[in-house]
Structures are given as C-alpha cells and as structure tokens.
Write a structure and sequence with these properties.
- Helices cover 22% and strands 43% of the residues.
- The chain is of the alpha+beta class.
- It has a 4-stranded antiparallel sheet, with no helix packed on it.
Amino acid sequence: MKKRIIPAIVVFACLIAAGCGKEKQCICYYDDVDAYYEKYIFVGPGLNCSDISEVSYENRITTEEGSHTLQRSDIHQVHCRDAHNI
C-alpha cells in the first residue's frame, strides 16, 4: 500500500508545482492615447496583471565607448487585466 501512495503523492506534488509556475496572459489598454489600443503581454507567475502600469520597448544599443545598454522607447501608461477573465 505504501509503495503506491508515495509515488501518487510525488506525481500530485509535481502537478501542483507545474500549475503554479505557468505564465499569464494580460490584456493592457493604453491610457495616454486617444484611439482605442490594446496590447497582449505574457508575464511570469509572480506578477499580477493589475500591477502593470507602464509598457515600453527596450532596444539594445552600443554606446560610443563600446559598452552595451538598453534604451527604452515607445513608453505608454496602461491599465491591464488577466486576458482569461474577460
């Protein structure tokens, strides 16, 4: 009996751990443009869609000194929600 219960518990624990680690899909609406505009964003398991307040693009650039850095562009204020709870 114990030989069957322990593997069942291990399989159940793996299923629970995999379910908690999934990324979420958020739908974000732009607040700072006149036209209706929405963007879908995938976020990791530790972030709530309602926590997102700004979206932008980051471009990797090389400075004149030869170092690499990220430059933000196309910055917008947004409000987001979970795309699956529409």
